[in-house]
Automatic annotation (TrEMBL):
Start and end residues of each Flagellar hook-associated protein 2 C-terminal domain: 215-438
Presence of the UniProt keyword Protease in the record: no
Coiled coil among keywords: yes
Domain Flagellar hook-associated protein 2 N-terminal: 11-105
Subunit structure: Homopentamer.
Protein name, UniProt field: Flagellar hook-associated protein 2
Organism: Billgrantia gudaonensis
Localization per Swiss-Prot or TrEMBL: Secreted; Bacterial flagellum
Pfam families hit by this protein: Flagellin_IN, FliD_C, FliD_N
Keywords: Bacterial flagellum, Cell projection, Cilium, Coiled coil, Flagellum, Secreted
Superkingdom field: Bacteria
Residue ranges that the Swiss-Prot or TrEMBL entry lists as coiled coil: 394-421
Family to which the UniProt record says this protein belongs: Belongs to the FliD family.
Role: Required for morphogenesis and for the elongation of the flagellar filament by facilitating polymerization of the flagellin monomers at the tip of growing filament. Forms a capping structure, which prevents flagellin subunits (transported through the central channel of the flagellum) from leaking out without polymerization at the distal end.
């Protein structure tokens, strides 16, 4: 208990100040409890950050343990005007693609109209319509409104979701023309003709054949085989591969290579190394020994952290049996003295090019937990599970925090009872000192009177 300043005597005694000092001294009993609670709360926060780092590592390991990663293909194009994507149905191969011309939508303009305000459809027309003929000779009737102008005809076409064409108006410098453009590309979907019924007397609105631009299929050659497509997205010509042609591709010859997607595998391995190193950095900050309790890591000497690091390190260095590659070091990945991983990208590229199957056997193996990634995934699963290592540590600290809170409350109540007892005692003391002062004052008066009597005699 902290020292208490000397008490005064008589009426000079500061009982309130003394009581405050006693309270402050008693409340020092709470400081160790608060310090322990802060320490446990710091541990909970640190365990949460460790959990987050391990979860990120778990995601990276899961990708390496997915056999599909090593079976995926990528497509690369040499030349301008075409892109390619693959699906799981694709197979490795090399192709030469020559594009004669790309697909386009057809269009047709009407004969000219001098004044947009002029009525084109008779006001008394019965069921007037615009009939559009397409490249495959199918037709589509679009209902028009009696008394409609060219602009209202345009609006009626665009309002019809099933029209198969979009309408616009172009001014050629002398007249206004209604232009119909196919909503889809290809020869069959292209606009071929337009015809109106219910026209106003004297109106000769019709399709102008001189403006006709027929729809066109894309025409290309793949390794000597002629291919047509109604759109510039060519699907099915090469199984599992989709080609997308740009209008600039017409007349171009390009090379297409479909091969194992080494880059995705390399990215997955790099992500694993980065996630592991990030987790190690997190652990390093949590276990940093500075000699100062205020700046040291929250988990210095923590058994849970030691177990986590030990298990992960063992998973990384233990050989994987059954394949040409048995150690991470054969892939250019080495475990450094500080516990971090270092990757030689050139050596990894060499392994990917020379023996990709060995990479599959090492990381994914022939079963879910056979390869190194599977082994790590199992370990991380046990650490991060609902009853795993990390959650158990968090629960233990949370239990400790609850216990400390109850202990704090009990101690605080005990302190208040002690202060109440002091207050009562001081009150009694105050009364006793007051009484003694009164007696002292009376005796002083009596002595003074006696002294005066003796002096008079």
């Amino acid at each position: 208990m902290a020292s208490i300043s000397s008490l005064g005597v008589g009426s000079g005694l500061d009982l309130s100040g003394l009581l405050d000092q006693l309270r402050a001294a008693e409340r020092q009993k709470l400081q160790p409890i608060t310090a322990q609670k802060t320490q446990e709360q710091g541990k909970i926060s640190a365990y949460g950050r460790l959990q987050s780092g391990l979860s990120k590592l778990q995601d990276a390991v899961a990708k390496l343990n997915d056999g599909g990663l090593y079976q995926s293909l990528s497509a690369s194009v040499q030349g301008e005007g075409m892109t390619a994507t693959t699906t799981e149905e694709a197979s490795p191969g090399r192709y030469e693609v020559t594009v004669t011309h790309t697909a386009r939508a057809g269009s047709l303009a009407s004969t000219g109209v001098a004044d947009l305000e002029t009525t084109q459809i008779a006001a008394d027309a019965i069921d007037p319509k615009l009939t559009v003929t397409f490249g495959d000779d199918t037709t589509k009737d679009i209902a028009l409104t009696p008394g409609a102008t060219l602009e209202e005809i345009r609006d009626a076409v665009n309002a019809d979701a099933e029209a198969g064409v979009d309408a616009s108006i172009i001014f050629d410098g002398a007249d206004h023309r209604l232009v119909l453009s196919s909503r889809e590309s290809g020869a069959d979907a292209g606009v071929k003709d337009m015809a109106f019924s219910g026209l106003e007397g004297g109106v000769t609105l019709a399709g102008d054949p001189d403006t006709h631009q027929p729809g066109r299929d894309a025409l290309l050659d793949i390794n000597g085989i002629e291919i047509t497509s109604t759109t510039n997205t060519v699907e099915g010509a090469i199984q599992g591969v989709t080609l997308t042609l740009d209008p600039s591709a017409s007349g171009e010859t390009m090379s297409l290579v479909v091969e194992r997607d080494r880059e995705s595998v390399k990215e997955a391995v790099t992500a694993f190394v980065d996630a592991y190193n990030e987790m190690k950095s997190t652990v390093g900050r949590m276990t940093n020994v500075t000699g100062d309790a205020e700046t040291a890591g929250e988990l210095v000497g923590d058994r849970t952290v030691r177990n986590v690091e030990s298990q992960l390190s063992r998973n990384l260095v233990d050989p994987v049996a059954g394949g040409d590659i048995t150690m991470l070091s054969q892939l250019g990945i080495s475990l450094q003295a500080n516990g971090r991983l270092e990757m030689d990208a050139d050596k990894l590229d060499e392994a990917l090019a020379d023996n990709p199957q060995a990479l599959v056997d090492f990381f994914a193996g022939d079963s879910e937990e056979a390869g190194m990634a599977g082994r790590l995934e199992g370990t991380l699963g046990r650490m991060l599970g609902d009853d795993g290592t990390i959650q158990s540590a968090i629960s233990s600290s949370e239990t400790q925090v609850s216990s400390l809170e109850r202990r704090y409350d009990r101690t605080e109540q005990s302190i208040e009872r002690t202060i109440d007892r002091y207050r009562k005692q001081f009150s009694q003391l105050d009364g006793l000192i007051a009484q003694m002062n009164s007696v002292s004052s009376y005796l002083g008066q009596q002595l003074t009177m006696l002294n005066n009597q003796f002096s008079q005699n």
